[in-house]
UniProtKB/TrEMBL annotation:
Entries under SMART domains matching the protein: PKS_KR
InterPro entries: KR_dom, NAD(P)-bd_dom_sf, Sc_DH/Rdtase_CS, SDR_fam
Residue span of region Disordered: 282-307
Domain Ketoreductase: 16-202
Organism encoding this protein: Microvirga arabica
The entry's keywords: Membrane, Oxidoreductase, Transmembrane, Transmembrane helix
Stored Pfam families: adh_short (PF00106)
Protein name: SDR family oxidoreductase
Residues of the signal peptide: none
Domain of life of the source: Bacteria
Family per similarity comment: Belongs to the short-chain dehydrogenases/reductases (SDR) family.
Amino acid sequence: MRQVDEAAYKSSRNGPVVVITGASAGIGRAVAVAFGREGCRVALIARGRERLASSAREVEQAGGLALAIEADVADAEAVEAAAAQVVSTWGRMDIWVNNAMASVFGPVTELSPKEIRRVTEVTYLGQVHGTLAALRHMRERDRGTIVQIGSALSHRSIPLQSAYCAAKFAVRGFTDSLRSELHHEGSGIRLTMVQLPAVDTPQFDWVRSHLPRRLQPVPPIHDPEPVAEAILRAAWEAPREIWVGGPTIQAILGTMVAPGLLDRMMARRAWEGQMTDEPAEIRDGNLFDAPPGDPGRRGRFGSRSRRHVPAVSGTAARGILAAVALGCVAGALTAAWHLGARASRDGDLRRLPERERAARMIG
């Protein structure tokens, strides 16, 4: 354990213990600082010693207590060792946030099996390793919360990020299975998944890419800090899912209603939407090795990113969709009834002269 500031220790020594993977930059770093402001003891797991130490300093400046642990989440033994270090240092863990990710941009035909494997090992298996490590320690107390950081791409795949989308889909499938198992056991451990929109993080300057132009998140882009606040809400309240950002809500609900239409929309908009007009820089990216330096929380899109982001539970959003669908069905039935009633009245009027003639013949 590295030396920590004594005042920070005194203010945070009884605070909740939070573990965050991928905590050295971007969303993970913003979440770590947000927990620090809540007076939490925050364990930060990531590659890259320089920016990991910088992230830990920010947590303590915010009022928390930090423990920096350098580890690759693709290494299950390293994650287990990190979890054991947290418990050895602070006696327990209350919240575990699985945030670490890796990606590679390019058409499927240009990706190598090695690249796809690495994305899967970090983005999917990294969350599996973190979940297993958290469960082993949380089960002893039958309490704790595991937060899975997902994406709109956990529900709606886009072109040029097939490996990442597949890994996020896998995380959602794994999480849903585990949730059912915890219910079956009557476990006190809570499990939640947060589906994120496009966020202004440094990853677009270090991720591996086979594309001819510089990368960008598919607009609209959001600041990391309000997104981090939504993740905090998920950690404290533990809904089944939280959908963060209007584009996330639209993408998930749109996929439920009209997946084929979204396939065609993604073919047009998401392809060009992931690139700027600037030519790409040649680089290996961070897929296999952590790049040097300390990029911080934000990327280069601050002038275009949104500072406010809506967030709703997936249950509420599905309820709204169901209500709208029922309203549409009810409206259609009402319209059909009125049309039928009108047709019946018109038919009665047409038959009236025939009835009169028949009555005269009888008379």
